[in-house]
Amino acid sequence: MAARLHQLRSKAAQASEFVAKNGCAYYKELLEKNKQYIVQPPSVEKCQELSKQLFYTRLASIPGRYESFWKEIDGLRHIWRNKKDLKVEEASIAALFGLELYAWSCVGEIVGRGFTFTGYYV
Predict the structure, then answer these.
(1) Fewest C-beta in 10 Å: which of 1, 50, 87, 101?
(2) Do 45 and 75 sit in the same domain of this protein?
């Protein structure tokens, strides 16, 4: 256990050294590549304006997402009506997808409780 801790510390030190040497250059390169997305001059007012634009753009996209949702529901209804024609592969994929959703829900509950299985800190 002590050997692993020493190994972990040395790798963390190497990573820290790498970031210290190359972090500034990476930052400058990243800003240079994406300078078309940087608003000049940076100001609080411009940030507020951009956040409002994002909010109302998302709000305006709701009708399209609503239509897409109901198309998906109609597709599921069609599959359910014609379940006799359903292949084993399609049914197994749907079952695996449902199982994955259930597993993510369980993981979310565990994380929400602070990584405890009973809900209480022991």
Answers:
(1) 1
(2) yes
Per-residue pLDDT in tens (0 to 9) along the chain, 122 residues:
777 888 888 888 888 888 888 888 888 998 999 999 988 888 999 999 999 999 999 999 999 999 999 999 998 899 889 888 888 998 899 899 999 999 999 888 888 877 776 655 54
CA distance 115 to 5: 23
Within-domain flag for 46: yes
Classify residue 118: in a domain, yes or no: no
Q: Provide the b/e sequence for 51-84 (b: ≥16 CB within 10 Å).
A: eeeeeeeeeeeeeeeeeeeeeeeeeeeeeeeeee
Q: At how many degrees (to 10) do helices 62-81 and 44-60 cross? A: 30
Of 46, 51, 115, nearest to 38 (Cα)?
46
pTM over 0.70: no
Q: Domain for residue 120, yes or no?
A: no
Range of the domain at 60: 39-81
Within this chain, do residues 95 and 69 fall inside the same structural domain, yes or no? no
